[in-house]
Design goal:
The chain is α/β, with parallel strands linked by helices. 26% of the residues lie in helices and 24% in strands. It is built from ten helices and 19 strands. The strands form four sheets. It has a seven-stranded parallel beta sheet. A six-stranded antiparallel beta barrel has the order 11-14-17-16-15-18. Strands 2-10 form a two-stranded parallel ribbon. Helix 1 crosses helix 3. The longest helix is centred in the middle third of the chain and has 16 residues. The relative contact order is 0.14. The model has no long low-confidence stretch (mean pLDDT 96).
């Protein structure tokens, strides 16, 4: 499929507005930005530039490969690598201006042996993913730590008691470990309140139009939009089926548009039962199974010639509910066959 038949629009103005809202909600804490996974699939280079213009100075990627792909950062910006320094990466890390977030005893020992440069450190407070255990904090003695991190496990559920347990644990860690600042809250963590902000917040999905936890939907602007071109328009008679498995059968004469879009483009197969595509202002349901490269839509009553661009309903909350996929999966799974348009 030619990428000109698929379009991914990224609204950088909305992105910057979302960051400003999250920064305001972070209070006096600095507000950073998670730009890992190519900025959740939206293009790390343009996203970092737009956020830096808005005032963001702290950025986070997962790996040294992602750091290298970004290249030179904007003036005054700081980049941290969340997975630390793994085997064979020390030379790369030392040659980079980015800072590792050390997360295992072996990483701490290797960094200490290689350099006296400052680093970040991740401490586990209950998610049991990455991070030093609280019983390993003595390994940090004498280390030059810029930012001490931990990560919330249940921040999307406002009343989950795990949140307060992790907050108490992180307060103890932050009091025991000398560091320039501390960071605990992601997008949902920011919505938990000022107690969780510490010196730096690390929003991700909220920047890109996702609504999680107690974040009010009205305060988040959509950033990503997708559109696809109609390959063919056909008339389907009563009793005829559409798509693999003949899962949809026409109960009335139906005008069907077939679009250059499928699960290879991150439009989930599970949207077969609940997807919606717009012909102008008319909401048109997806019919039949979403296939790898194509999706069929009921456009009865709409003027949709072949070659028409149709807008896909990609509101993250609605799409997540319809597909059974998380908002994170939907964004990061969009793939590489779109013509990207930055606004």
């Amino acid at each position: 499929m030619d990428s000109a038949n698929l379009r991914l629009t990224i609204d950088l103005t909305a992105l910057a507005s979302n960051w400003r809202s999250l920064a305001a909600a972070s209070g006096p804490a600095a507000c950073g930005a998670a730009v890992k996974a190519d900025s959740y699939g939206l293009g790390a280079g343009p996203v970092v530039s737009a956020l830096a213009r808005a005032g963001c100075r702290d950025f986070f990627v997962a790996s040294w490969a992602e750091a290298a792909a970004l290249g030179a950062m904007p003036d005054g910006a700081r980049l941290a690598v969340l997975h630390g320094v793994q085997d064979g990466e020390m030379a790369t890390a030392l040659a980079s201006p980015a800072v590792p977030v050390l997360c295992t005893p072996a990483q701490v020992a290797a960094w200490r042996a290689a350099t006296t440069r400052p680093c970040d450190v991740m401490v586990d407070t209950g998610i049991n993913r990455l991070g030093l255990a609280r019983g390993e904090l003595d390994l940090l003695d004498g280390l030059a730590i810029d930012t001490l991190h931990s990560h919330l496990a249940c921040a999307e559920t406002l009343a989950d008691p795990m949140n307060t347990r992790q907050l108490a644990a992180f307060r103890e860690v932050a009091a025991a470990v000398p560091a320039r600042r501390a960071s605990l809250a992601n997008s949902a963590g920011i919505a938990l309140g000022s107690d969780y902000a510490f010196g730096l917040t690390r929003p991700g999905i909220g920047l890109y139009g996702g609504v999680v936890g107690a974040t009010p939907a009205a305060g988040v602007k959509p950033v990503a939009g997708i559109a696809a071109r109609v390959v063919q328009v056909r008339d389907v008679a009563v009793g005829d089926s559409v798509g693999y498995g003949a899962t949809w059968t026409a109960e009335r004469p139906t005008r069907v548009a077939v679009l250059n879009l499928g699960y290879a483009d991150g439009y989930p197969r599970s949207m077969s039962a609940g997807g919606c595509i717009f012909a102008g202002d008319l909401a048109c349901p997806v019919i039949g199974r979403v296939s790898m490269d194509l999706v069929a839509v009921d456009v009865t009553g709409a003027d949709v010639p072949e070659g028409t661009w149709l807008r896909i309903d990609f509101d993250l909350v609605r799409a997540a509910a319809a597909s059974g996929r998380s908002q994170y999966e939907l964004l990061t799974g969009l793939g590489h066959r779109y013509a990207r348009v930055y606004q």
